[in-house]
Amino acid sequence: MKRHKSFYLWFRFARRKAMPWLVLTSYTLNLTWVCGSEHTKEQARLMTALAKINFAHWFELAQEIIDDLPYWFY
User: Fold this and answer.
1) In angstroms, rounded to a whole number, what is the distance separating the alpha carbons of residues 71 and 38?
2) Rg of the chain's alpha carbons, rounded to an integer?
């Protein structure tokens, strides 16, 4: 029983980490296939999904990479 609970917890953790990105890709794919008023609805859903994703960690990583570049790249 303990092993089942451990798997369930890891599954929930992975789902929470991956879900915003899965939603983002599905809305982007939907946006390419629909047209008309549905296109506008999918654009709104995509912008809402983008607003909910926290990009701070990605910006910090990019800043660290830029700070560690040698001086000749500046």
Assistant:
1) 49
2) 19
Identify the residue whose tokens are 């709104």: 44
pLDDT digits (tens, 9 = 90+) for 18-71: 777 787 888 888 888 888 888 888 888 888 888 877 788 878 888 887 777 766
Distance between CA atoms of 27 and 47, rounded to whole angstroms?
9
Cα within 13 Å of Cα(42), Cβ side: 17
Q: Identify whether the C-beta of residue 37 lies closer than 8 Å to the C-beta of residue 11.
A: no
Note the Cα 27 to chain centre separation in Å.
11
pTM above 0.85, yes or no: no
